[in-house]
Design goal:
The complex is a heterodimer. By secondary structure, chain A is α/β, with parallel strands linked by helices. Chain A is 48% helix and 21% strand. The longest helix of chain A is centred in the N-terminal third of the chain and has 13 residues. Chain B folds into 5 domains: 130 residues, Up-down Bundle (Four Helix Bundle (Hemerythrin (Met), subunit A)); 102 residues, Histidine kinase CheA-like, P2 response regulator-binding domain (Alpha-Beta Plaits, 2-Layer Sandwich); 56 residues, Helix Hairpins (Orthogonal Bundle); 180 residues, Heat Shock Protein 90 (2-Layer Sandwich); 130 residues, OB fold (Dihydrolipoamide Acetyltransferase, E2P) (Beta Barrel). Chain B has 20 helices and 22 strands. Classes of the chains: A alpha/beta, B alpha+beta. At the A-B interface, helix 1, helix 3, helix 4, strand 5 and helix 5 of A face helix 1, helix 2, helix 6 and helix 7 of B.
């Protein structure tokens, strides 16, 4: 059975791209969220195997969303999606419980490697 | 990976964020002490940066990055921005917009950003906020989870996973992250988290705060108290990825600066994006379905005697296709703010340029129109708004003399009327000088010498004549772009109408009335010889038969007298200079009376064929075509027919 994924990013552009990369690799995208609040809510509903999480989102940022999700499920597998220059934020996200990260611009091979590490 | 497929999505979403930037800048300019605009601006520019980097648009990403940097300093500084900084950000937004458009066209090289980059960097340096002003994310974390027994080594948070028994030996571990790996500090942090699942981590070198620095070179060491073998430890560390080397025994370290965390703000609506062409195709298909539905109904009427069930099926299909049609029309509806949102910036810029003070208000932003109508409305509105600022609103000094508020007001309002939307542009300026316009119109021979006053309707007709302008009033602002005649032609091509109201000293209002949707309209199909023409029913007042009503002439034109009113006639055969491929017309020809506001005209045709729903298609008229067509449609038999523009005929 393919792994289920929740894609969280406020940009449709980014969600589309991540979805394409993962779907082509055989993952099943079960949901999308464009704010941290939605991410937490959808995680609760969908219990996906993997979450991709943008850092800068309106309403509730990605790091706070990681904290909330890990509070619900300490085993949650969250992959941070970061831009260059966000090192401090990614470090914070990892402290909050994120399992790995990829850096924009995304290279599909690196995204898939990170996903394998997180799920492996 | 083929990125071209994402270009359109990139463009659409970037435009949305750039429009948001303009809105936020205006908001910030109005209330400089508000903290919200800068957060939103930061987020919008940041999103554009990430998307542009992904598309490989280096210049766009770089410009966005530098703007983001400046915004970050401003945000952290927490002070109200100086006027020139807002100006700079407006310019930056414009430059970013231009770069985005060029990049998508494959012409990113042509984007000239050197000057704006220098200005942005200069401003960023001037606003550089001291990082010490706010504790780093890590510092906050450390304060929240202190480790009292190790005061001079960095405190590490406990792993969420239960630690393995840590009564084994202590090992000194050195790790190097690959030099080409991005965010080496974050990768190192992952290693630390991972080995915490094996035992207790101590004496981390360099300290955790160094991991947050972009200067971190990827080499670090720590003491690990664990029962696991070296091979196990190495395997666990390597599983994190991007690990160059793991060794046991040694040390190194330094310290770096830190950047604080992001904040988040307002939410956005939920929607999916559909290519407009897809909706156009759906609309076309529905149009064909509507046409076939008409034929099915005819057939059903003939066959109903043989099998009454066919009538039920025909009625059902009719209802379903009507519902489907309605849904697609709804899907094309777009709130006017999508076009109106750029106007506050425009009005502000024009007012500044002309030294006027203008407060601009938009009402009815949520009113919806068909996407195609809305898109075509942009240019005419720009023209009318420029005009309002330039010719309508007086200078602050003159307004004071008139005992008016030195700040003029312009209101752009959308209101839903029955089957149309009225969009008004009103100002509280000087109004249009009728006497001046009248005199000029007489001088140019547009009006006869006997005319003494201009009604609103006449005034508009004079103003809308191609090339008519009160030369002394042309400025760099309204001299540009489309003239009022072009604006009116566009509105009429959309099946709309224009009204003007003006009062000296009080102001001027233009009211544009537009159909809510132009995709499908009910029309009267008329024949000239073997040719067919469609007349939208919206403007058909009645039909009469030529010869049954009294004939007269009006200003040298044939006319009929209809209930004591003289209605001028337009003979379609003569107007179009066609005999429609058929012999002379029948003696008793029908007259279709069109009505638009106060104006009427009777259109003489050979015959009336039917009333039906037609799908309006855009129409690029060849040069020299009479300005009486507003579009074309495809008839049930696949033959195209032209749609007559009521506004061009009356």
């Amino acid at each position: 059975m393919s792994h289920t994924v929740l894609v969280c990013d406020d940009a449709i552009f980014m969600r589309t791209m991540i979805t394409d990369i993962l779907a082509q690799a055989g993952f099943e995208i079960v949901g999308e969220a464009e704010t941290g609040t939605q991410a937490v809510e959808k995680y609760r509903q969908l219990k996906p195997d993997l979450v991709t999480m943008d850092i800068v989102m309106p309403d509730m940022g990605g790091i706070d969303a990681v904290r909330e999700i890990v509070k619900q499920d300490p085993d949650a597998k969250i992959l941070m999606c970061s831009a260059m220059g966000q090192q401090a934020l990614v470090v914070e996200a990892i402290q909050a419980g994120a399992k790995d990260f990829v850096v924009k611009p995304f290279q599909p091979s690196r995204v898939l490697e990170a996903v394998q590490r997180v799920l492996g | 990976m083929d990125l071209s497929q994402y270009a359109e999505l990139f463009l659409a979403e970037s435009r949305e964020h750039l429009s948001a930037c303009n809105q936020l800048l205006l908001e910030w300019e109005r209330s400089p002490t508000s903290a919200e605009p800068v957060g939103g601006l930061f987020r919008a520019v940041h999103t554009i940066k990430g998307m542009a980097a992904t598309m490989g648009y280096a210049k766009v990403a770089d410009l966005a990055h530098r703007m983001e940097n400046l915004l970050d300093h401003l945000r952290r500084g927490g002070r109200a921005p100086a006027e020139d900084v807002i100006q700079l950000l407006f310019r930056g937004t414009d430059a970013l917009e231009k770069a985005v458009e060029l990049a998508v066209q494959g012409r990113e090289r042509d984007a000239d950003v050197a000057a704006i980059l220098a200005d942005i960097d200069g401003a960023a340096a001037a606003h550089h906020a001291k990082p010490a002003a706010q504790p780093s994310a890590l510092a906050r974390f450390t304060i929240a989870a202190p480790e009292p027994e190790a005061p001079d080594s960095p405190s590490l948070p406990a792993a969420p996973v239960a630690s393995a028994a840590s009564s084994g030996s202590s090992r000194h571990v050195n790790v190097a992250i690959r030099s080409e790996a991005p965010l080496k500090g974050a990768r190192a942090m992952l290693v630390v988290r991972k080995v915490q699942s094996l035992g207790t981590v101590d004496r981390l070198q360099p300290q955790l705060t160094a991991f947050e620095s972009d200067d971190f070179d990827g080499r670090f060491s720590f003491e690990l108290d664990t029962t696991r073998s070296a091979a196990d430890i190495e395997a666990v560390i390597r599983s994190v990825g991007d690990v160059e080397r793991v060794s046991f025994g040694g040390a190194a370290g330094d310290e770096g600066q830190v950047t604080p965390a992001e904040s988040a703000a307002a939410g956005r609506g939920r929607h999916i994006r559909v290519d407009l062409r897809r909706l156009d195709t759906l609309m076309d298909l529905i149009g064909e379905l509507v046409t076939e539905r008409g034929r099915l109904n005819e057939l059903a009427a003939r066959w109903v005697g043989k099998d009454p069930d066919i009538d039920d099926v025909a009625i059902h299909i009719s209802r379903l296709s009507a519902d489907l049609q309605n849904e697609i029309i709804q899907a094309r509806m777009t709130p006017v703010w999508q076009v109106f949102d750029r106007f506050p910036r425009l009005v502000r810029d024009v007012a500044r340029q002309l030294g006027k003070q203008v407060s601009f208000r938009v009402e009815g932003k949520e009113i919806e129109l068909d996407r195609e109508i809305l898109d075509a409305l942009g240019d005419p509105l720009v023209h009318l708004l420029r005009n309002a600022v330039d010719h309508g609103i007086e200078s602050p000094a003159e307004r004071k003399r008139q005992k008016k508020n030195p700040e003029g007001e312009i209101v752009l309002a959308a209101v839903r009327e029955r089957s149309s939307v009225a969009i008004s542009i009103s100002d509280d300026g000087r109004g249009i000088d009728r006497a001046q316009i009248l005199e000029k119109a007489k001088r140019e021979g547009i009006l006869g010498p006997h005319v003494e006053t201009l009604s609103d309707d006449q005034l508009l007709r004079v103003l809308a004549r191609p090339g008519f302008s009160t030369a002394e009033a042309v400025t760099s602002v309204s001299g540009r772009g489309v003239g009022i005649d072009v604006a009116m032609t566009r509105i009429r091509a959309l099946g709309g109408s224009v009204e003007i109201r003006t009062e000296p000293g009080k102001g001027t209002a233009f009211v544009l009335r537009l159909p809510v949707t132009l995709a499908i309209v009910r029309a009267l199909i008329a024949a000239v010889g073997l040719e067919r023409y469609a007349l939208p029913l919206t403007y058909v007042a009645e039909t009469v038969e030529f010869g049954t009503v009294p004939l007269t002439t009006m200003e040298g034109r044939d006319a009929i007298v209809l209930r004591d009113r003289v209605v001028p006639l337009v003979d379609l055969r003569k107007l179009l200079e066609t005999n429609g491929g058929a012999p002379p017309p029948p003696p008793r020809r029908p007259v279709i009376v069109l009505e638009m506001g106060e104006r009427r005209a009777g259109i003489v045709v050979d015959g009336m064929l039917s009333q039906q729903e037609i799908v309006v298609k855009g129409f690029d008229a060849p040069q020299g075509t009479l300005p009486v067509f507003s579009g074309a449609t495809i008839m049930g038999d696949g033959v195209p027919a032209l749609i007559l523009d009521a506004a061009g005929l009356v």
